[in-house]
């Protein structure tokens, strides 16, 4: 029997297969990013703002709870089985959107899409972490998130092009049939489960079991709790900007084409930057990368309020994307390196639950508080909240890639390189 080894190079074929599969996972959500408001208005007569809010809330809730389910189900089922289940939820989505005769069908499709994203994306993350072991974990997460978000962006452009070229917005969902079938077949016939890699790492690790996975990941553990809070705030500000950035740009007199271009700068920098920032987490202290990334995001959001010129606006959006790229792959790496391999899927599921619940909070807050206090006040409050979360992580987190442990909690004062 072939010996099971950990490492990116040692498991290259399976790792890159997972990257491809995660690309298809991202492609499924990319189908909707650019055409849902148009579908709502042209087909169902619903305003773009209402459609966007209902889409984000439905999708965010489903994805958050699917992340939580993934963590718990991982104690009973294999990673591959959970990935397959995620793809089964994806299969009906393009068909529902193609033949939707009411907005309720669209909401139902997005609930299924959220379940697909939560289970399938989480499974690919956990399986890559299983394969690569401790070395190059940040690089692996950077590649994973880059592939997923690159697919989101490319397919969003493809969907918009199809809707524009054909004049039928529902045709934009046709590629989703191929994406879902391809992801399912690749998983069934070519992907191997990673339970053997988990056993190897569990036999080598010195990381203790968490006393309470829910409590420690949510808040009690110095590193895990800080990352969870930062993840929630990161997606809260992203959810707010998803809804409010086009409104802000419109009030500044930008055209629809200019708004589309400007709104795309932030996710493009975010996606591409993760190829670099994930690797930085393998070399430098993740604590500083996370706190720096959150502070940069907060500064960039505040700068949007004072961006009177096109150059300043572009600079703010680039900085925002760079700040998000600094934190996103390193969130996952910090969770992985602070949890025992057998508890890792549960801890990642809890982290991703709170992180993606930030989308729901951000979407609701954007709609509610912008009406009560105005757009500028909401953006300023979001900027301060984001900077505050970054400062808290700088104060609270351990700063090394490997920790000394006291009992079952990481104590910052006892951290040193080992």
Automatic annotation (TrEMBL):
PROSITE patterns listed in its UniProt record: MFS
Keywords of this entry: Cell membrane, Membrane, Transmembrane, Transmembrane helix, Transport
Subcellular location: Cell membrane
Any one Pfam family match given in the protein's UniProt record, by short name: MFS_1
Record's bilayer topology term: Multi-pass membrane protein
Keyword Transmembrane helix set for record: yes
Listed GO CC annotations: plasma membrane
Transmembrane segments: 12-31, 43-62, 82-99, 105-126, 146-163, 169-191, 289-307, 313-336, 357-373, 379-399
Record has Transport as a keyword: yes
Domain Major facilitator superfamily (MFS) profile: from-to ranges: 1-195, 223-418
GO terms, molecular function: transmembrane transporter activity
Signal peptide: none
SUPFAM superfamilies according to UniProt: MFS general substrate transporter
Name by which UniProt lists this protein: Predicted arabinose efflux permease, MFS family
Organism: Pontibacter ummariensis
């Amino acid at each position: 029997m072939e010996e099971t080894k950990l490492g990116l190079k040692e498991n290259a074929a399976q790792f890159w297969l997972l990257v491809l599969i995660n690309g298809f996972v991202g492609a499924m959500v990319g189908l909707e990013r650019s055409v849902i408001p148009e579908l709502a208005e042209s087909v169902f007569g619903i305003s773009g703002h209402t459609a966007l809010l209902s889409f984000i809330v439905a999708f965010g809730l489903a994805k958050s709870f699917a992340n939580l389910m993934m963590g718990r189900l991982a104690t009973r089922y294999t990673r591959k089985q959970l990935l397959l289940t995620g793809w089964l939820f994806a299969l009906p989505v393009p068909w529902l959107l193609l033949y939707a005769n009411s907005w309720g069908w669209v909401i139902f499709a997005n609930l299924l899409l959220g379940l697909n994203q939560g289970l399938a994306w989480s499974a690919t993350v956990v399986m890559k972490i299983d394969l690569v072991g401790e070395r190059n974990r940040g690089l692996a997460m950077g590649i994973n998130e880059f592939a997923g978000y690159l697919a989101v962006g490319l397919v969003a452009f493809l969907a918009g092009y199809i809707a524009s070229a054909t004049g039928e917005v529902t045709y934009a969902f046709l590629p989703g049939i191929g994406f879902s079938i391809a992801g399912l077949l690749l998983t069934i016939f070519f992907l191997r489960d990673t339970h053997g890699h988990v056993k190897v790492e569990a036999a080598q690790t010195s990381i203790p079991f968490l006393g309470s996975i829910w409590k420690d990941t949510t808040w009690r553990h110095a590193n895990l709790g800080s990352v969870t809070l930062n993840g929630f705030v990161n997606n809260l500000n992203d959810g707010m900007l998803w809804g409010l950035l086009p409104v802000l740009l419109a009030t500044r007199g930008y055209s629809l084409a200019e708004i589309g271009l400007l709104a795309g700068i932030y996710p493009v920098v975010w996606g591409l930057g993760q190829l670099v920032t994930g690797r930085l987490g393998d070399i430098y202290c993740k604590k500083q990368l996370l706190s720096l990334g959150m502070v940069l995001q907060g500064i960039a959001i505040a700068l949007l309020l004072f961006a009177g010129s096109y150059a300043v606006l572009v600079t703010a959006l680039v900085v925002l994307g760079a700040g998000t790229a600094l934190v996103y792959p390193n969130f996952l790496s910090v969770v992985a390196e602070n949890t025992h391999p057998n508890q890792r899927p549960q801890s990642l599921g809890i982290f991703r639950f709170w992180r993606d619940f930030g989308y729901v909070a951000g979407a609701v807050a954007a709609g509610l508080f912008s009406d009560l206090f105005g757009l500028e006040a909401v953006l300023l409050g979001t900027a301060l909240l984001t900077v505050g979360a970054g400062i808290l992580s700088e104060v609270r987190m351990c700063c090394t890639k490997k920790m000394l442990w006291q009992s079952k909690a990481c104590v910052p004062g006892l951290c040193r390189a080992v």
